[in-house]
Amino acid sequence: MIDFARITIKAGDGGDGRVSFRREKFVSKGGPDGGDGGNGGSVWLETDKDLNTLKPFQFQKKFVAENGEPGGKYKRHGADGKDLVIKTPSGTIVKTEGSDPSVLLDLVKPGERVCLVKGGRGGKGNWQFRSSILTTPKFAETGSKGKTKQLSLELKLLADVGLIGLPNSGKSTLLSVLTRAKPKIADYPFTTLEPNLGVMEGSDPSDLVIADIPGLIEGASKGKGLGIEFLRHIERCKILVHLLDGAKLLTSGVLLTDYSVIRNELSQYSTSLLEKPEILVLNKIDVLNKKQMIQALTALKKTKKKLFCISAVTHKGLEELKKELYRY
């Protein structure tokens, strides 16, 4: 998924004013009649509901609006340059580039349109400068230059529910059974290399958008595994669903340790993620016996989080989990 891009935008230059004088068959010394130049086109950013990545910016890095046309004879106004509208997904954050970057915009509504740089103003023709004192002005105004900006675009997915957990905990499988999404699923770590989205359908408008992000490992904040940059995609989520791999109990895995690893990596990215509502989901309970289940429940009770036990493969416990998610 392309979720970051750097672009350069430039508004159109204003057209120059015209220097001309009225000349006709029986008018040899007419007054000034140079028209004004047209305004340059502006650059706009508009969110498009049909886009979900910044891939259109992967190869095109520069966007330039049209220049205004120069003024004409007979006081004719030059044509304005056409505005340039750049389409981007909802959830795009626009930042200035440079030594002191700052957030300019956070576009979350579909169809939202914002002007990034305004086109240059057209110059005045010499007709505008006539007066009782200066009856034949032989000069005109130059159109102003359109501004240039260097910006960075950062996409944060708009999802209601964020699935987090260690690699191979079953996040993609859960996404596929809760929604119609078809992420890649395999029995090895880091099958998911980029965020996946799915919609869990309910009674409209109760549909929930669920985001499955790549698995985190201990040390991800220091660059191990796939890192933690994907965590930006769950910053807007209303609730986090923390999946734990119940099958680890078969090899003496410690679920509480796994839980702590993920919580620590979240804190390294942003402490605000720790404040989000979170529920625990113990997955793969179909492979556990009664003793192992008791062991798991006893350990996870210490987190003081609401716990759901499921099997994404056999669909056991999914209805209870769905009901809980719809509460948000």
From TrEMBL:
One of its GO terms (molecular function) is GTPase activity. Its main location: cytoplasm. Its EC number is 3.6.5.-. Its cofactor is Mg(2+). One of its GO terms (biological process) is ribosome biogenesis. It is an enzyme of class 3 (hydrolase). NCBIfam families: Obg_CgtA (TIGR02729), PRK12297.1 (NF008955), PRK12299.1 (NF008956). InterPro entries: G_OBG, GTP-bd, GTP-bd_Obg/CgtA, GTP1-OBG_CS, GTP1_OBG_dom, GTP1_OBG_dom_sf, OBG_GTPase, P-loop_NTPase. GTP binds at residues 165-172, 190-194, 212-215, 283-286, 311-313. It comes from the Bacteria. This is GTPase Obg. PROSITE patterns: G_OBG, GTP1_OBG, OBG. An essential GTPase which binds GTP, GDP and possibly (p)ppGpp with moderate affinity, with high nucleotide exchange rates and a fairly low GTP hydrolysis rate. Plays a role in control of the cell cycle, stress response, ribosome biogenesis and in those bacteria that undergo differentiation, in morphogenesis control. Keywords: Cytoplasm, GTP-binding, Hydrolase, Magnesium, Metal-binding, Nucleotide-binding. It is found in: Cytoplasm. Monomer. It comes from Candidatus Beckwithbacteria bacterium GW2011_GWA2_43_10. Residues 159-328 form the OBG-type G domain. Residues 1-158 form the Obg domain. Belongs to the TRAFAC class OBG-HflX-like GTPase superfamily. OBG GTPase family. One of its GO terms (cellular component) is cytoplasm. Mg(2+) binds at residues 172, 192.
